[in-house]
Amino acid sequence: MGDKDIFDYNVLLERLYESLPKKRVTETIEIPTLNIAHIGLQTQIRNFKEICDIIRREPRICMRFFLKELAARGTIDDSGIFTIYSRVSAQTLNALFRRFLMTYVRCSTCGSLHTVLIRQGKVWVIKCLACGAESPVKPI
Description:
By secondary structure, the chain is an alpha+beta fold. It has two domains: 31-105, Defensin A-like (2-Layer Sandwich), CATH 3.30.30.170; 107-140, no CATH class. The chain is 35% helix and 21% strand. The protein has helices at 3-6, 9-19, 48-54, 59-70, 90-104; strands spanning 36-39, 42-45, 74-76, 82-84, 115-120, 123-128, 134-137. The strands form two sheets. The protein has a four-stranded antiparallel sheet with strand order 1-2-4-3, with helices on one face. Strands 5-6-7 form a three-stranded antiparallel sheet, with no helix packed on it. A hairpin with a 2-residue loop joins strand 1 and strand 2 (42-45). Helix 4 (59-70) packs across helix 5 (90-104).
């Protein structure tokens, strides 16, 4: 390899591409729709724990977001069914869930749903498992 090869554009470009980290291919997350049932004046999301497991969020944190936004009371039982003690339309719950995903799950840098929500002191931070970015979010 002579001096001319060291400064050749194609050689330099090839060296650059070799030094870049390999792109990680991550599968997309299939999030099922909310299984909503109305029982009298109560509303239940029957697959709530399953969905929280898929998006890697603690069910209590998700529940707190929903109840705060709805200004309602509710509980999660041992089988993972989330009960809201008021009648809420499926359209409202789906809109709230989409807002939760955009605010507390989706990475603001790469758009991936492969994230975890961690607490650093008093600040909540979304850490992306796909690109490694960290971005603070408002407290729940």
